[in-house]
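Protein Record: Sequence and Backbone Structure Tokens
======================================================
Tokens: labelled as protein backbone structure tokens, with as many entries as the chain has residues.
Question of interest: how does this chain fold, as expressed in backbone structure tokens?

___
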Amino acid sequence: MTVEDFCKWIESSNFKDGDRLPSVREVASSLGASVFTAFRAYKKLVEQGKIYSEHGNGYFWGRKPEISVAVHERESVRLERLLLDAWKSGKISADGPLPSIKDLCTSYETSLGAMQRTLAKLREQGILERKGQGRYYFRNTRLSLTEPKEILLIMRCNANGDFNCLGERELQFMHNVYASAHRRNLKPKVLGYFEEESAFLDAGGKRIMLEDCRGCFGAVVSTMLVFDINKLFAKLATTRFPVAVWWEHPLYDIPRALKKEKRFAFFNLAFGEFPGRIVGRFLKKKGLTRIAFVSPYHMSMWSRDRLKGLKNVGLEVFEATDASHASPYDFMQEPRAHVRYRQILMSLVKKIPPVDAWVVSNDRVGVELISFVNQGKIPRPPYMVSFDNSTDSYRNRLDSFEFNVETLAEQSVFHLISPGVTLYKKGDFRELSGHVVEK
């Protein structure tokens, strides 16, 4: 049998696109031809575009499907998104190596090749490093620290330099910054920011100039309850070291000029719609779709954003809100603040129709409502979930959304070590995720 005869036989065999053809040895044996003749025939058909080969997998009828680059890119995008989600939640830590490639493949249900390509791409972008064939870890762009280096931890203070107004979340943040800094061989030096005089104070109330801190390795800054942020950042802009910012303001207020600077990183812990979306998805998994959102702080952007997040996951929401105050601190400025607060809260919950669950804007509200229930002033809600996951939520067994303060501290300190090294895209606002803690 000649090559031409062999080609005619294959063309008349009614193979369909994608059908796998017999191997060279199989077809040579069945037709009584030599293996060499069969091989030449297959090669000729490949050249004519009638069949195609896959290395190690044989020959197939028709034209080779155009895969790949696009498929690999789509899988790479998916894997990068999953890695970013793990980075935002703290499941992937900046303080240690990534899980093994095998474990990552298992976690993300992907092939070894796809994961290797994704990690290699992140390495090329300067995000990851690897020693030999070992595990990947996040790149250190500054020199290894053989001796302790000083960093600044800047938070608001009073005229004496005291932090006596710090809330539970801020205290947790301070503790986590100290712990993360210690692991990195960094030594925090705490400065208070006294806003009324736009001054930095040490623990003794002595004024400290940022110009005298040029030798610092970097600064971690909290903007919680700092109201005129422009004055604070006008001072920070004169520094030359990296600055990690816990941003506790509406997202659109970030100084644009500083957002573009690689040495500044802005982290969002509580603002935006994502806390509401996560709580909304949590409720939907429980089959709770008709809810009431209770907030006496609805003048604030964070309260309105949480409501939007709940609505955006498809929940039916009754709004029990009051927009005369923006925060618990607003109420503190008024005479008989707690009485007024309870009056507003009672007026809100009395309007709530039958629903599946109550979502309250923070633990303070939830604890107050539980006291109303215990006093017999309101019926017990069918289910209640809150935000903050404070100590009081544990005392009262109130399910609550936990903001990821530990990851905020860890990534803030890591930014000082490696400015710009992150799974976030360049210039992105670094929004950390959280989860509901059930009690």
